[in-house]
Fold B-related factor 1.
Amino acid sequence: GKRQIHHLGNQLQLNQHCLDTAFNFFKMAVSKHLTRGRKMTHVIAACLYLVCRTEGTPHMLLDLSDLLQVNVYVLGKTFLLLARELCINAPAIDPCLYIPRFAHMLEFGDKNHEVSMTALRLLQRMKRDWMHTGRRPSGLCGAALLVAARMHDFRRTVKEVIRVVKVCESTLRKRLTEFEDTPTSQLTIDEFMKIDLEEECDPPSFTAGQKKLKIQQLEKALSKKLEDFEGEISSYQDEIEIELENSRPKAKGVFANFTKDDSIEDNMSSILGEEEAEDEELEAAANHLNKDFYNELHEKDRLKKSEDGEWKNGKEATVRPPALESLLGPLPTAASLGITESIKECISTKDREPGE
């Protein structure tokens, strides 16, 4: 185990003190039987990363994962187990430790120191605004370096920064948007380099929770207002319908009788049902035909009298319009419908006594 620790530690360029501390951690793990059922390389990498966390060296677990070609989550699981079982408090790494390393990899040339100092200043501001709590230090370093590079006229793209700090693009953009919400982002470059704002911002998660609460309250208030407006709209609609019904022109003369008959028929059909409505329709048709029959008889008598009078006076007969039968064909008569007897009975009722 000591031989492998020295081999891997030299690749990470760790000093002898760190290597001795890692070997002590490895002996404690062996004494507690934590190496059983686990690969030796995983345990050694976890011991070395535990030293990096306690000593504050600028190394990430991804560096060990790249050297050993092992999944970083497997190494992280072993590291958490060792830290818990050995009762070692592994402090969070200060993001400022990674800035010189990442700045050197981004190749700023002569302005490497200036860009690093600006990025460190940005990181200090982010830490004061509670952006570092619960977040990976590499994401904060990437955002700070990207802003610092733009401030010093270096056009580094997001992909170039991601390739160096090894975080996802969405993570980097989230850090940038969180920094954008702080008052420091509203300062100019000269003001930022000279002025230190004393006030601290709320953590981004707290502000996000407050926004959600406000949105929920606004949605509730809007739903209540919509319900009130819907009630008012429905009442206005009822009033408008009533006013339109009252303002309709009422039928006069002959059309009033038809409207009354229609309303009576509608009411009767709704009350008595379809069968009784059909009977009423038949009765109405019979009455209508009876009226046509009486009108036809009356018209014939009038025409005979007028013709006799005209011939007596020696005048020419007036030209009559063409008969309706010639236009529409043979019309139904009382004889064709077989209701002549009923018509005669109706006529004979006039001679009967009113009591009968």
User: Anything to note?
Assistant: The first helix runs from residue 2 to 11. The domain at 96-193 is CATH 1.10.472.10 (Cyclin A; domain 1). The chain has 17 helices and no strands.
